[in-house]
Amino acid sequence: MTSPSTGRALPETERTRHRRLREQGSLDRAALDAVLAAGFLCHLGVVVDGTPMVVPTVYGADGGTLYFHGSVASRSLVASPGATVCVTVTHVDGLVLARSVFEHGVNYRSAMVYGTPRPVTDPEEKLAGLRCLTEQAAPGQWDYARRPSRKELAATALLALSLDEASVKIRTGPPDDGDGADAELGLWAGVLPLHTAWGPLEPDPALPADLAPPAHLADRAASPAGRPGA
Amino acid sequence: MTSPSTGRALPETERTRHRRLREQGSLDRAALDAVLAAGFLCHLGVVVDGTPMVVPTVYGADGGTLYFHGSVASRSLVASPGATVCVTVTHVDGLVLARSVFEHGVNYRSAMVYGTPRPVTDPEEKLAGLRCLTEQAAPGQWDYARRPSRKELAATALLALSLDEASVKIRTGPPDDGDGADAELGLWAGVLPLHTAWGPLEPDPALPADLAPPAHLADRAASPAGRPGA
């Protein structure tokens, strides 16, 4: 991720104000950048015929813009190009195991971005956006794999969403019932952390047997996952 | 998950028909049950003032019903109790690294459920639904932790969503460009698998030092994650 902005605050709007669990909310730009940099899959929410549709899709975040494929929700985005979308990125960090069922929860980091996506038509920006999207999921592949041809570029619908209206929610730490009456129950409480990790590379069976993977993939296959920016 | 139904097909509706990537779509009930059983976090899509809102939240799936907390999207669901929602559950299984950037993608399993959530008001069903939700994320905790009091139960808004209108999309296997012109480029191609795993338990600092975790948590802390049904 380029140009991480620290200390800047995102504007608070009617949609991004934290009503519930206010203590976990953040409008800090650096927090948003960090959550977006830590993943590559978002859930895109659009409205189709008045009902919501939530589609998983890959994204790339670069400075103030989030890029994603326009084809994933084509019915909606083609039908109403000026419509607002909501893009949500969530990382689950662990289960919060409290003394009471009522206080059980999840440690997580989540970002919600609202806005009206702009179709990227300029060929140069489209290449840059696709590079951003590709490198977010698979760093090193833009320089290694064959880049899009003019025909492929024309067939790709890329959308750009401003990060100006966004909010972050983060929960960390132990359960909240460590100092109440339930603490006297003698029950174990704490957090069961959840991690993601890359497994060993699985070569395409169509490959020649002696074709070794490039270093950027071989190195990654032995590393913790989901944190391309770390 | 109780009563997995094998061989049953979900009805195809205008919303669940697979338009894109048809080969990956499924309306098989067993496939839906498997995707839902493999996780505990969904992305809930609702419409608020005409714009979509996508909120991460925990769920429980039991037979034909998906349970989730009504408080997560209170603004919308309280304002329009008859509104349709979309619940999406996604598991990322790996990166598909093709010879061309254009063919890059993700191996994943995803379920989308559409419907109008029903508020659960019967105390017995509410307890059963909360048990389902708790056990999906943290098996064994319903019997171990303190169960909800009458007051806590009254303060909990639980929603039930039928699984009757749902669809599944799954992508597995190597990239699709193993037999085209790009196969001659001499580039490595294949899949970089992504796994989730539980880490070591983190005891609440407020606990007495000699309080050992129960077996169902200690055992799980050393196991692959995200597959409570497996």
Explain this structure to me?
Two copies of one chain form a homodimer. Chain A has a single domain, classed as Pnp Oxidase, Chain A (Roll), CATH 2.30.110. The first copy, chain A, contains six helices and eleven strands. Chain A has helices at 29-37, 74-79, 123-137, 141-144, 150-155, 215-220; strands at 25-26, 41-48, 51-62, 65-69, 85-97, 105-115, 118-119, 158-162, 165-171, 190-198, 202-203. In chain A, strands 1, 2, 3, 4, 5, 6, 7, 8, 9 and 10 form a ten-stranded antiparallel sheet that branches. In chain A, strand 5 and strand 6 (105-115) form a beta hairpin. The model of chain A is unreliable at 1-6, 18-23 and 226-230 (pLDDT under 50). Chains A and B meet through strand 2, strand 3, strand 5, strand 6 and helix 3 of A and strand 2, strand 3, strand 5, strand 6 and helix 3 of B. Strand 10 (190-198) of chain A pairs antiparallel with strand 11 of chain B.
